[in-house]
What does this fold into?
Amino acid sequence: MVKIDRGKPSFVASFASVEKSQWMELFSLKSAYLRNQVDVSAKRVIEAAAEAPDVYEALGFQSAEQMITEGYDLDIREVEHARKWLELSNADAPYREVVSRAEKAAITAEAVRSIKAEKPEATQQQIADEVGISKPRVNQLLNKKDNLSNSLNTETIEQEAVRRDISEMCVKRERQLQRDHPEISERFKAGEFKSLNAACIEAGIVHRKVGVPVNDVAAVATILLKHYTKHELIEAIQLSAER
It folds into this structure.
């Protein structure tokens, strides 16, 4: 049987549509796209998250959530928000708006508090549905004085994760950010970062990772040159060769 060479994959391709040997290259393309685009469509966010459970292990991640948060630098809550956005708009609309993150966060916070003031009987889920954000985010906004600092003394990591419906890893990183880098923590809560992972990278808690295809040296060089200068790469190669 003749095997047709489909060429290099495009970032819009699904993992199921390409050979497994090309998965790392496709992941690198998807990751670069999701990390670097100013406007990422809700549809692309949902597609990326939906594929993660089927391919995370082959790409070297411990879980689908780790692939989404560290590989794609997305917040799990962003994925749910993107899904809600599509349900409401019924279109492939840009998920991230042109307004600054801080401004968007302030508008969202004001909307949540206004609804609660006008309808004190409204549940957090009802408010979340009306505003178009996650229930944990509503909980965070309504308890601004500070879920994180209070929970450090009153709840275990597991208990807080269950109450807020987030992963234990997120709770651990939020606590570490609050404890060791309070200024960055406040900026994160104000909406200046697109995800918890991005805030942790700036704080030095998490080191940014990039996926590279091991069977294509040129592709590796192209990806690395997006993050390092030519001089830095040459110097690193020389140092490695001397060891």
